[in-house]
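sry for the spam today, last one i promise. struct tokens for design, 258 residues
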């Protein structure tokens, strides 16, 4: 569906009324602006303030669900100890209060990393993100034809690898992984662990559609920005995500008012 309506106040209030709610959010393009260098990404202050306020409410669980590796997500998001973290498109699931002890074993073969490094060397301005379970070539901010050539070269490096790899593409990114999972897998895991009676998940990318696919009619799926989506609701920008987070906060607070 291409023209999903924005989230109505009644949907916010119905969601907030559930005993335990899980608010799960993609990071880049949903809580933070899309930037050329992934390491420069930071959450919008108003979104962070809303998430911190929501974390302090009874029956509210917060999660970040990202394609980033957890170590990258930790660096850019500075999550609270109470938050769930899902990284590497669902491969990594870190429960609350365990982020400081979490480590991921690097499973990326050296020769595959070297192949990606050659792509970066041959295409100035592109950037390599090394994850425990995969590699990602970032081309955001690079001239269009160079970015296209770099993406094709990275794709070729993945396709010619002798062992099975899982390839994804997104906003200015080509990624291959030695472990396969989706954001839907990660989201399903934290839905079960949190005991949530309703889940809200918002994301802006094709990979977030896997998360939307595991939600039920009692949950809330929100696509941020343009593009085809299965989500029934759409918000235009991360700034509107912040607005919704505060609306949920206020609706939840009103339920506890005498």
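last one done:
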């Amino acid at each position: 569906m291409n023209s999903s309506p924005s989230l109505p106040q009644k949907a916010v209030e119905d969601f907030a009324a559930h005993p335990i709610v899980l608010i799960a959010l993609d990071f880049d393009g949903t809580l933070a602006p899309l930037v050329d260098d992934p390491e420069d990404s930071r959450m919008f202050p108003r979104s962070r303030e809303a998430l911190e306020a929501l974390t302090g409410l009874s029956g509210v669980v917060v999660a970040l669900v990202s394609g980033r590796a957890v170590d990258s997500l930790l660096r850019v998001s500075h999550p609270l100890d109470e938050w769930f973290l899902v990284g590497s498109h669902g491969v990594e699931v870190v429960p609350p209060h365990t982020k400081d002890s979490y480590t991921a074993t690097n499973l990326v073969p050296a020769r595959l990393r070297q192949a990606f490094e050659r792509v970066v060397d041959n295409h100035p301005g592109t950037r390599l993100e090394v994850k425990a379970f995969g590699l990602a070539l970032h081309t955001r901010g690079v001239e269009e034809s160079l970015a296209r050539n770099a993406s094709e070269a990275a794709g070729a490096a993945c396709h010619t690898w002798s062992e099975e790899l899982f390839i994804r593409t997104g906003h200015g990114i080509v990624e291959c992984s030695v472990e396969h999972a989706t954001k839907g897998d990660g989201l399903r895991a934290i839905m079960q662990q949190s005991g949530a009676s309703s889940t809200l998940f918002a994301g802006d990318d094709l990979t977030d559609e896997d998360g939307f696919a595991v939600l039920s009619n009692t949950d809330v799926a929100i696509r941020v920005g343009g593009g085809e989506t299965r989500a029934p609701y759409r918000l235009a920008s991360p700034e509107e995500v912040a607005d919704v987070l505060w609306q949920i906060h206020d609706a939840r607070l009103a339920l506890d008012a005498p």
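The longest strand covers residues 60-65. ok im logging off now
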